[in-house]
Amino acid sequence: MVILILRVIHILLGVFWAGAVFMVALFVQPAIAASGPEGGKVMGALVKRRRRGTCRSLAPRGQHASPATGRFAAPCSRAV
Cβ contacts of residue 33 below 8 Å, gap of 6+? Predict the structure, then answer.
């Protein structure tokens, strides 16, 4: 019974995730692109906000690999 409940939750979260991806790809990104230079400011704010969330989630681990270099770096350093 527990497996069935977890499976249903997993499927529902997958559907939510896919819907969010399509919403961003079909509505948010075209709207930001159409807004011109102001769209760049919005995207910059979103990236900055995401970086803070990533830093909070990685900070307890002590360090993580940089996607750009594959080397380990201190959490939230500018090299990341």
Answer: 39
